[in-house]
Amino acid sequence: MQNNLKLSRFLQIYNERYYSERKGICLQCGRRKCPILDKKLISNSITDLLSKEIHNFSPPGIFVGWVGYPKIRLGPMISLKSYKNNKEFHVLDYPAEWYGLSLDNLIEYRTSLVRSESITHADLAKNPDYNLKNIQELTLSTIPVYMEAEFLKKPRLNLFFDPISEPLPPSATIKKFSLESNISIPADVEKIYYDTDLNTVNGLYFLYTRGYDEYYLTKIFSAGTIGIRKKRRFVPTRWAITAVDDIIATKIKEEVRYLPSIDEFLVFSNTYLGNHFEILFMPGPFEFENIECWMPGSVWSFGDIIITSEYDPEKGRKTYARLQGGGYYAARLPILDKMLNKGKKARVVCFREISDEYYIPVGVWEVRENVKRALSNRPLKFSSLEESLSYIKSKLKVDFEKYFRISVILRKATTQKVLSSFDR
Amino acid sequence: MFKALINGDVIKNALMGVSILSNDVKMNFNDEGIYIKAVDDANVCMVSLNLKKDDFDYFDASSSSIGLNIKTAYDLLKDAKKGEPIEIELLEKDSKIKFSMGNLSYSLVLLNIDAIKKEPKTPKIDLPVEAVINGEDFKKAVKAAEKISDYIIFNADNEGLKISSKGNMRDMFLSIPKEELMKYSIKEGNSVRSMFSLEYVSEIAKVFTNQEDVELHIGNDFPILMKSNIAKHEGFIEYLLAPRVEEGY
């Protein structure tokens, strides 16, 4: 995974140099908008707000970097702008509310925050000093918190678009930090925080079943506030996002496998930020396959159509879905959640077609919210696999043969006979 | 009422044989023995397990049925020593089943029988070829096919049985003339070919590993019946597996 990240960082720097030479006006890359120009415009809009000292209400979030792990950069996110009410502060660091925003709006949201940093050791989460304890506890809060921060230098505007976590805002090394308001921790969360004998998996699942969503759970997991005392540690944000998705999905799978199967073919669809989803539910045991197709002009296409598939068989997979990373896990969880809520299991193929409208990665929350919206839409019902595939084929832009050739589940479903077809 | 004593290897193999396809099953007892019939969620493979009274060292049962999580039962028993006798007792009052080996005992809560999937109906099919192959040879052929592709092809004609698999870059072919098979019969004028998913056949081959003979009943693009005696007398486990076909979307 680290190699992939190095590659993505390299490509970002390479692309920036390449585009810079062309002054951002040529669009020879095939993209609709120039990412470098976008960055420049954003920089101009917030430079005046950056200073060495910031005192403000902020959403209760932290960022934990992964570079150099277990020595990590960690700190709370502090808002640069003031808003009238708590909800507006909260939305700044809460992707569940971002659905429907344009890429420009999203970037504006993220650049309204400063990512404060101080170097610490991941293991200190189990035995935090006063400052780290403050940082841990603020992540548990459900209301914005007032923070005072003094930085060593004025925050540097170095926007970084990450494929897994949300776009990373300006950052600065923190000199002094204090929490100046009360925090509000729900009783369920407080119980899990102080229960140092409860393991992480059960703690996370308990809170998930109590209605706390993936974004909140990722924050408190990343801050090392959950689990057996001696195993608590700070977890880099991008790892925490995938870990929480996988932990909860694995628990739900244990329940889903006992459910009866659906008896028809369902297709759910949705499109947002140039990402088009067609999700096919078929009768059978729980199996999941995510097929991603990056079209020319999209973030990871490099001019070609790139199709990848990651598959979760009935018996579960033991390896990391390295071809798709966080996107695979973010798509799988809402699908399992849907099955649990409906009390029916299915064999699922999720088609994700990414067009040139998606020219900047915004993080895997986009996949999660896109899939959630698709599943909340009314599905189209079909009586056979052939009919459902014909419909999906008409909705996808790339030649369906390419999807079919890579798909494990579709190949199985179209070639494997069932015993009932031999009943006379 | 049910109380029995049986060789641990037999019951472990029997439970494993069913658990590869299904988690929760209905286990039926009567004074002749026990039997289980289950199908996997995808309705591709069916398993029937029959253990007769004579296969047990001690057997006492009246007609009844229970719901059992067979995967958990197998997990509890799989560490029993080789050949160690295992006592099985139904604790009707507590709604539990108890497994004892030496001075160690486990009890497992029974499942609500109404919540368990209905026992499948066995399709009536006529399979023209019957071949009996050694369990080790069967496993060897399956292992070889696993190196090539995700499916295995059974061909049978007047000369004997042929097992093969085809990949993009390599092929595998195993021919067993009818004289080398323990038993071979084919309806006149028939030559059959059926293809099956190794996802299932590989698991089934593990159950048959230590068996002296495995009966194969083959048809043309039809399900295959694979059967083996897993106990000392008449007890057997058999699988009916639906074929794969070559045409795609």
Automatic annotation (TrEMBL), chain A:
Listed GO biological process terms: DNA repair
Residue span, Archaeal Nre C-terminal domain: 314-422
InterPro entries per UniProt: Nre (IPR033167), Nre_C (IPR006979), Nre_N (IPR006978)
Keyword Metal-binding attached: no
UniProt keyword annotation of Endoplasmic reticulum present: no
Keywords: DNA damage, DNA repair
Domain Archaeal Nre N-terminal: 29-301
Pfam families hit by this protein: Nre_C (PF04895), Nre_N (PF04894)
Family classification: Belongs to the Nre family.
Stated role: Involved in DNA damage repair.
Protein name: DNA repair protein
TrEMBL record, chain B:
Entry keyword annotation includes Iron: no
CDD domains: PCNA
GO molecular function term, any single one: DNA polymerase processivity factor activity
Domain (Proliferating cell nuclear antigen PCNA N-terminal) ranges: 5-100
GO terms, biological process: leading strand elongation; regulation of DNA replication
DNA-binding as UniProt keyword: yes
Domain Proliferating cell nuclear antigen PCNA C-terminal: 134-243
Keywords attached to this entry: DNA replication, DNA-binding
PROSITE patterns named among the record's database cross-references: PCNA_1
Domain of life: Archaea
Subunit structure: Homotrimer. The subunits circularize to form a toroid; DNA passes through its center. Replication factor C (RFC) is required to load the toroid on the DNA.
Its biological purpose: Sliding clamp subunit that acts as a moving platform for DNA processing. Responsible for tethering the catalytic subunit of DNA polymerase and other proteins to DNA during high-speed replication.
Family note: Belongs to the PCNA family.
HAMAP family in the record: DNApol_clamp_arch
Name of the molecule in the record: DNA polymerase sliding clamp
Species this chain originates from: Methanoliparum thermophilum
